[in-house]
Amino acid sequence: MIKAILIFNNHGKPRLSKFYQPYVNTQQQIIRETFHLVSKRDENVCNFLEGGLLIGGSDNKLIYRHYATLYFVFCVDSSESELGILDLIQVFVETLDKCFENVCELDLIFHVDKVHNILAEMVMGGMVLETNMNEIVTQIDAQNKLEKSEAGLAGAPARAVSAVKNMNLPEIPRNINIGDISIKVPNLPSFK
Amino acid sequence: MALKMVKGSIDRMFDKNLQDLVRGIRNHKEDEAKYISQCIDEIKQELKQDNIAVKANAVCKLTYLQMLGYDISWAAFNIIEVMSASKFTFKRIGYLAASQSFHEGTDVIMLTTNQIRKDLSSPSQYDTGVALTGLSCFVTPDLARDLANDIMTLMSHTKPYIRKKAVLIMYKVFLKYPESLRPAFPRLKEKLEDPDPGVQSAAVNVICELARRNPKNYLSLAPLFFKLMTSSTNNWVLIKIIKLFGALTPLEPRLGKKLIEPLTNLIHSTSAMSLLYECVNTVIAVLISLSSGMPNHSASIQLCVQKLRILIEDSDQNLKYLGLLAMSKILKTHPKSVQSHKDLILQCLDDKDESIRLRALDLLYGMVSKKNLMEIVKKLMTHVDKAEGTTYRDELLTKIIDICSQSNYQYITNFEWYISILVELTRLEGTRHGHLIAAQMLDVAIRVKAIRKFAVSQMSALLDSAHLLASSTQRNGICEVLYAAAWICGEFSEHLQEPHHTLEAMLRPRVTTLPGHIQAVYVQNVVKLYASILQQKEQAGEAEGAQAVTQLMVDRLPQFVQSADLEVQERASCILQLVKHIQKLQAKDVPVAEEVSALFAGELNPVAPKAQKKVPVPEGLDLDAWINEPLSDSESEDERPRAVFHEEEQRRPKHRPSEADEEELARRREARKQEQANNPFYIKSSPSPQKRYQDTPGVEHIPVVQIDLSVPLKVPGLPMSDQYVKLEEERRHRQKLEKDKRRKKRKEKEKKGKRRHSSLPTESDEDIAPAQQVDIVTEEMPENALPSDEDDKDPNDPYRALDIDLDKPLADSEKLPIQKHRNTETSKSPEKDVPMVEKKSKKPKKKEKKHKEKERDKEKKKEKEKKAEDLDFWLSTTPPPAPAPAPAPVPSTKSPKPKKKKHRKEKEERTKGKKKSKKQPPGSEEAAGEPVQNGAPEEEQLPPESSYSLLAENSYVKMTCDIRGSLQEDSQVTVAIVLENRSSSILKGMELSVLDSLNARMARPQGSSVHDGVPVPFQLPPGVSNEAQYVFTIQSIVMAQKLKGTLSFIAKNDEGATHEKLDFRLHFSCSSYLITTPCYSDAFAKLLESGDLSMSSIKVDGIRMSFQNLLAKICFHHHFSVVERVDSCASMYSRSIQGHHVCLLVKKGENSVSVDGKCSDSTLLSNLLEEMKATLAKC
Question: Does B73 contact A at CB distance below 8 Å?
Fold first, then answer.
């Protein structure tokens, strides 16, 4: 079982948190603790980590990957294969990359709902639902299409307004700083 | 109205959306909290509006704020509103917010039940999907109970997207509502063979998760998983299955044997490291479970260890970590094979990665032996000094203690060394584990009698330098060791060299800065010390000295009387009075020492921690009964002080052992001595352990002593553990010499006398005798303690509830609860969209209930036996003895050849057949069994049947097949072909090519042409059979038809490979287009009345078979279900894959059977009846 999936940046700012077990009042502490544990590790050490006290007993493990400015952390118990989860993180990031077209931290910042939707097609209730990237992308595309058709005419003015809003502000997600923030997806063996 | 909507959407444009909120937060870095509280106010306003889009937008923003740690539970009701929006866009927002913020304590959650049910049955698959995803995060026991049935229905949804989600969420439902496991399990099992890989993977996931907690209940699924393992290509599924097998093999070693080969194949063939690693892991588990019975697997273990060593030496840190992890699994059973890699593991201790260091530490735990313990601990001690960061250092400390104390100090040969290690550890700054060290000190001092003298000397030194410990590190836990030190010095004060000095040390004013509970122990033990000094002085006749000590006590004790700690104060004032009294007596020259020391007389016995729990309740004792009738209130107040006093007494650490205990102890000691006397390797000890201990480190025996210490025993101050390492080496050397001498002597004797085999003089662990004949007192247990392992189980474990026997057939009472409308009448058949399961449970089954129950019991037994038999059969590599009652001639198309292999085959088919029958549509199982259950008590047994018929065979391969209608798609049938390799060669590259006809086409992988063969997804080693499934699309089903096909394959053996072919004809009978569908008598009657069915009938003569069996045959071979049965007349129903209704009326005469049929297609009916005639003719 996957207990939790966390994404935070190099400064510990949460970008996504998904808990599959009820941690009612400790979620923020868990994020902080996990960041503390993960961030002090060197780049070239192993991707497994024991000893998150808050999230559960000795059966649990933190499995993480660090991409550019973001940490992707999965907290899992012993029924999951360590290398399998590493591959899964890779699939997740590649899927994000495909859905956002060259994903960068700003995408995750501004579209956390979409990231949740993508994750929901991959992991459900703490169990892995789908590992095939194409299948995930197909479902996401179909849902986006459905969303667009629902918005119909009413959606158009709203989209226009938000485009105008974006134009007026100096801080527009995509055009700034992509170079160093964008997540580089290395080619690793993953599920076929 | 329209205007209002437009206005609403224009307003909406200027609301903040999620992006605006995020941007705003980023722009208000300085006053973020203020900005957010402002936003929350806005959101509250938005939630008050009627426009659902505005609400959804607000909820979306709330979800983001929830991630940042803001409480959004106040909006729970609004979230539910958004969940119930009709548009998918909003619904998704609502469910996401719910999944992020709802939990079991959310009270409005019960309002969602009906909304979720509605969404689950929504025609849009994404509505259903989003509801399932959301539910998986916040399902409660109530929701699970109410929705279990709906979700179970979704498990057979036509869309794989829904099926896989429904299957996966069932695990959560089981956890919250364990009663649902048994009713849902058959369907879950069926999903293991779902045509969609995603659904299959989900089912594997769920069953693996279930089996991990209670593996024994899932052992019967092993053959199925084995099949999946050999046929699946999805790595994720393979990993899960292989992990599952790792959990199953310890329960069934024979399974391991079967696994080894395919696993090694996988190891060689896979390129995915994750899969490879899991395979290695499971091979290890298999070897461990096997080798417990057979020692000849040690070579394989060595191989695994070697492979893991390669992983550990790899530069990839992840592999290094996993290698160490897997190594620790081998360690548990084969410590020896891991021990040889000590170098590598010690090297990993120096790794810069903490995860790896911790894993290496774990390994060390199992690698120690008597020989290397000192060396390893020495190494660890240097790490302790070097380690930066308290967490890792604390971890090291606990590991050192774990390693040394494991299995009753098994590996410690020199306890002086151990005590000095413990003392060294007290110098650690800032550790949290002072109490651990203290506990060890106490434990060793109490249980190892021989060490007490040394321990006391060390502890007095510790007490003397207590200011060092207490002053700098007041707040950390290290001062806990003073607790142990004070207690040991007090309790074993007879061993103290300078008791007076220690007494003074314990009475220093500084002591009052220690924590209360430590001071309390100080006070108590000061008296013990005082008593022994008094004794000494009086015996020596130094009355003045004795008075001086008393004076010291009277002077110093008041500082404790003033303590703020209640316990300290109480003890001190009590003792002060006592001492003052003694002073008075001393003034009168009355000898008091005897009496004072009598206060603390008696031996101390260690008691096992669970001893109290295990005392059996004597017969006739009712612990709940009142001893006295409860007293009135006024009286009970008088009782209270007494009760407190009583408790106090119990808490005293001292146990005054009865004489019986001492007798028992003496007896045990005798027994131990006896045992030692019989042990050839044991060096006979000198009369008392105490004396021996003094002998051992004696100076005169040690040739070179580099340390300028005369006798290590009397070392004042703190010792260095390293000295002991050297001393120990010396001692061992001497021991060895001595032993060699003895051996020589013996050899000489042997030479003189008869020839005898003596074991080679190897130095093993056992050769090293401990320095102190350690008198480890075994912990006491009460007499006739109840042996039980129950203690370790946690009664609150949520997974315990899922420990359910899944092989038992379902009882009526176990059906899932179904939401009913109040006005439905049970006798009427439910509406169309109501799930099958519901129908099942609603069937009136009052008739012959008693009898039925009896029969069901019988069936249960039978089924269980059969299950166990099946698994046994699958596991045994040689065919078991033929079943005792020879089965009646099997009425199937294949020719009965009396071959030895035949039995096996038949049996296998039977198993398969049974499995298949479960794969039939929901409810069919029950329906097929109906005639047996409802029928009269006919004892006659049905001969075992198989739905598989022979397709073709030659000397290489035998093909049998079963054709059944597909549930998912109209006009499709699934053909399951079992291929059995009968030759001694491996069959590979198998391909099936079928000539399509106009009416029937084979579904082929995309891109392949009609003339290409379809590959069979497995290879067949000799004697193995496996099943492949193919889908055919049929246009018209009213006629039976035949398709020609060829199986081509390569048979490879030692002599070479040959191409072979086998032709076959697939026969699609009309019956194979029928799907067993239960029907109700009222619906059946309506159907017949409707009049748009054509009719036809047949009659078959010369039938001897009982009506009961006849019906069962029709049900089985032609996929019908019994609607109603009266005496020797029954109505039956079935439905074709294209929706034709088929109704039958079967009547049995004296020697004949007549079948009247009605069907919406006359051709289909006549063809069906022809087929039925053929079947019946064989009866």
Answer: no
